[in-house]
């Protein structure tokens, strides 16, 4: 089992953050066998499919190049023109195959590990020139695995090639009895099929190498339990820092809430334990909104600010408890408390009007709130 520098065993699978950082450094699982087998197999199949077209283009080029008169040979302009025509004809013939190979060279590495461009991985590092470190890499488990893969490829390819040659021995020997053009065409097809069989044999090596590369990559990135804990603390925040942040956020929220208290129309209290500030403008809103609420010391502070700004304080313990339990700052009051709050607001507005016009003080209501609404 791999161990870290602290001596702890790396038993935990790499986290998403660890995998993301590794990919940014260019550390992704790669399989050379998958790349080479994919390129060679598809290339062999492409040769069989595109072979007739490529051969016909090359034959056309050769026919044009060899059917030239003595006068044309002596004319430099004609020779140059014929040469460019021959190059263009050959290029048109092999361009599709070259383009396909280029696409495969770029696409096959993406089949395992995806795209991972890292300037850090490309940067020059002096320790890479250390011969001791190089020898350690050669005589490591990975180096041994590479040697085993090389021997395995040699044996597998040799077996497949030998089997194909034995199977097609009569056809190979019969090429000498065919005409030149027929033997050339038949030989090309045999070569193409042989190449395809040899390439397909590499798929067996790739099927073994791909799981090994994924396992080896995961093993290298494994973490100790302490590393996982430290990462979680860094990602989610250390408890003491999170506590401090929450305290600051609460303080800021309370400060903003206290700034909204002067806009309230009434403060409903318990009378000492709870205080809820309501704001309501009939011409602007359909339902009253809770602008502030607090408990104990915060409730006391709300009442003090309300007194400083001559805001009516209405004592209704059941209603105050219900608003505190079910209401939220900045939102409308709960629907079940519409009637009770409407009684309070109607009294407050009537009381303000009576004071302004010197009228008789209205009768104070006693809003009813069910027991279950107070919890």
**Percentage of residues assigned to helices:** 55-70%
How do the strands of the widest beta sheet line up side by side?
3-2-1-4
Order of helices and strands: HHHHHHHHHHHEEEHEHH
Structural class: mainly alpha
The span between the termini is 56 Å
- Beta-strand content: 5-15%
Rg over alpha carbons: 42 Å
Overall mean pLDDT stands at 80
Beta strand count:
4
Q: Segments where pLDDT lies below 50 for 5+ residues?
A: none
Count the helices. How many? Answer: 14
User: What overall geometry do the principal axes of the alpha carbons give?
Assistant: elongated
Major β-sheet annotation: 4 strands, mixed
Descriptive overview:
With about 375 residues, this protein is mainly α. About 65% of the residues lie in helices and about 5% in strands. The protein has helices at about 15-25, 30-65, 70-75, 75-105, 120, 130-140, 140-165, 170-175, 180-220, 225-235, 240-260, 295-310, 315-325, 340-355, and strands spanning about 265-270, 275-280, 290-295, 310-315. Helix 2 runs antiparallel to helix 4 (about 75-105) and helix 7 (about 140-165) packs antiparallel against helix 9. The longest helix has about 40 residues, at about 180-220. The chain is elongated and about 130 Å long. The mean pLDDT is about 80.
Features:
14 helices; 6% strand; 4-stranded mixed sheet; single chain; 375 residues
Helix/strand layout:
Elements: H1 16-24, H2 32-66, H3 70-74, H4 76-107, H5 119-122, H6 131-138, H7 141-167, H8 169-174, H9 180-220, H10 225-236, H11 239-260, E1 266-269, E2 274-279, E3 289-295, H12 297-308, E4 312-315, H13 317-326, H14 338-357
Parallel strand pairs: 1-4
Antiparallel strand pairs: 1-2, 2-3
Helix pairs in contact: 2-4, 2-9, 7-9
